[in-house]
DNA sequence: CTGAAAGCGCTTACAG
DNA sequence: CTGAAAGCGCTTACAG
């Protein structure tokens, strides 16, 4: 393989001069810079990443820990991954994608071996076992998802409380007085998916404050089952006029359920979801929704992480916990109840 | 950080002995091995990946080039990625996920800088511009998807010809005499998505051989548009009794289209798709289908790649081009025409 | 503005 | 069975 030594020889300079000419870390005569650049081009020189990382303790790689859990809807995950990946590339970093079932040991592996400069955690749970190791790691970490203890970590998440309030308020303003909130399965809460109850509790509080009825229910996240659950739900609350959905699988299943029941939105029922616009397009969902902004959250996490990696923010500087304010995207599925 | 030097010191041996004790590449007295292992444990030693790769020219990382094209249905891609990632981990490799729009330069970047030991290409086109660089690369490559020229590359793909024949034969045997085949958009073919016409041509040939009518059409891969296309199609061919679908977005949109038209399968129409079982579950698709086996294809590609990387197959050994025989998964959406 | 040299943390012939 | 040393390909103080 062609090394910087070959470049140096071809340019008639020392290896250090060749290196500096490429990095620009000290002034170089135009003549030399020109010859070095030419040598690089003709020899097709590319620095060896392993050698560089050994010398600089920098890999220019970010570890991305994504878990594909049974109780979660895989297509919704993809948006976060793409948001992280695209922003990382923009900032000059590559992505080491880790999908191990055992996230903790995977984290340790890539961190301790210095394969990466920083770590993004997706799918963060209330008491995420990965966090202890992340805090102990040499590399900075950024989370998408809010754990109980954010100490020492930069955290980005949708403001699910605000999302819950907005959903209730929006339908309340339109005149609705009895609503149903469909959340992720109980199972998601059990393993620490705090966003489920963060949204739900805020929605319940808002409903109480406005003195309206809010039925809450946990629905499955797998497709055949969730359709049945939706039907049961509509049977159980025939007087409810609005449906709030914090469950991607339920949102995806709803169009055919409504169709089967001969219901149309917003005439018979107002519907308001919580998912990304990309998700809505993929599944052709005609419901207004709270934008969950996965690409933006992934991007924010990476930007902050890179600032830490590159020392723009010192390790002593306090961690940030940033909530994205939920936007409501109107697709015309809400209206006053009839 | 703790190095192998620290381990050696703690165990009272030389660095080379410590290294050999860990790699097992030469015999070591039990006493020494014990002390070394103990030192590793107490010091929490993990080898530095960059240093190791510099010394061994091995990174234990596989590059995964995935393109997310507008004309393709993103959720269908995820299965390939997961298949590759999980198998790689099983074999001791990590995944560098590259989603750059410019796949060619991304390939060059990770290859020339020796960040990876081998490369998996997803979404391979008929004349894929990435292939020239892959052939010139130092690292072996494996493809998921069949290009025109497979020379020097290991290739894995579904047998789309057989898939096309099977689809036609299956409905022919049931007594159907007029079918419609819905393919990906023309656009996919234009940029080299050979699988579209591989399936279609084989289906046409099979239809001709059996003397039945097969209407073919390219439908959009985006959701609102594809629904309209399906409706037009059913309007245009009212006497057709069977629908073959080689277009994930069309398959996802079909249930509601059928519902709107008051059609049920297989009573009014027999439907046979081509997508993965995982995809069917995610979208709750009730149609029988040809399994596209993305996880299996991804896994096969990685296994072959690792065999090349680890020298079990020499570079002079001929490349393989392997087709997965399509299985038909019966979900009860086909029956004799009425 | 440039060069010779040390060092990053490993592995692996070479010697014994 | 074990050790001293060279080398992988970079970067970066240290000297001039």
TrEMBL record, chains A, B:
<dbReference type="GO" id="GO:0003677">
    <property type="term" value="F:DNA binding"/>
</dbReference>
<feature type="domain" description="HTH lacI-type">
    <location>
        <begin position="2"/>
        <end position="56"/>
    </location>
</feature>
<dbReference type="InterPro" id="IPR046335">
    <property type="entry name" value="LacI/GalR-like_sensor"/>
</dbReference>
<keyword id="KW-0805">Transcription regulation</keyword>
<dbReference type="InterPro" id="IPR028082">
    <property type="entry name" value="Peripla_BP_I"/>
</dbReference>
<dbReference type="InterPro" id="IPR010982">
    <property type="entry name" value="Lambda_DNA-bd_dom_sf"/>
</dbReference>
<keyword id="KW-0804">Transcription</keyword>
<protein>
    <submittedName>
        <fullName>DNA-binding LacI/PurR family transcriptional regulator</fullName>
    </submittedName>
</protein>
<dbReference type="InterPro" id="IPR000843">
    <property type="entry name" value="HTH_LacI"/>
</dbReference>
<dbReference type="Pfam" id="PF00356">
    <property type="entry name" value="LacI"/>
</dbReference>
<keyword id="KW-0238">DNA-binding</keyword>
<dbReference type="Pfam" id="PF13377">
    <property type="entry name" value="Peripla_BP_3"/>
</dbReference>
């Amino acid at each position: 393989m062609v090394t910087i030594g070959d470049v140096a020889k071809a340019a008639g300079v020392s290896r250090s001069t060749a290196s500096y000419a490429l990095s620009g870390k000290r002034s170089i005569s135009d003549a030399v810079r020109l010859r070095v650049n030419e040598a690089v081009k003709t020899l097709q020189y590319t620095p060896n990443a392993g050698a560089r990382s050994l010398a600089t303790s920098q890999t220019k790689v970010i570890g991305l820990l994504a878990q594909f859990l049974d109780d979660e809807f895989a297509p919704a995950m993809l948006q976060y991954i793409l948001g992280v990946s695209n922003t990382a590339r923009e900032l000059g970093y590559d992505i080491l994608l880790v999908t191990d079932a055992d996230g903790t040991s995977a984290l340790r592996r890539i961190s301790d071996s210095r394969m990466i400069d920083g770590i993004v955690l997706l799918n963060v749970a209330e008491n995420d076992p990965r966090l202890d190791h992340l805090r102990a790691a040499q590399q900075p970490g950024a989370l998408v998802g809010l754990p109980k203890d954010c100490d020492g970590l930069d955290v980005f998440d949708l403001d699910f409380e605000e999302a819950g309030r907005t959903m209730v308020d929006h339908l309340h303003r339109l005149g609705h007085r009895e609503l149903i909130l469909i959340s992720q399965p109980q199972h998601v809460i059990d393993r620490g998916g705090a966003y489920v109850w963060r949204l739900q509790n805020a929605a319940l509080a808002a409903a109480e404050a406005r003195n309206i009825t809010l039925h809450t229910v946990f629905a499955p996240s797998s497709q055949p089952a969730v359709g049945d659950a939706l039907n049961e739900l509509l049977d159980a609350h025939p007087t409810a006029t609005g449906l709030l959905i914090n469950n991607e699988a339920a949102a995806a299943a709803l169009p055919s359920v409504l169709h089967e029941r001969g219901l149309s939105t917003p005439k018979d029922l107002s519907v308001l979801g919580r998912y990304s616009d990309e998700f809505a397009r993929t599944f052709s969902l005609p419901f207004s929704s709270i934008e969950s902004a996965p690409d933006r959250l992934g991007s924010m996490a990476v930007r902050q992480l890179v600032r830490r990696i590159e020392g723009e923010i010192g390790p002593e500087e306090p961690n940030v916990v940033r909530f994205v304010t939920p936007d409501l995207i109107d697709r015309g599925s809400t209206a006053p109840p009839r």
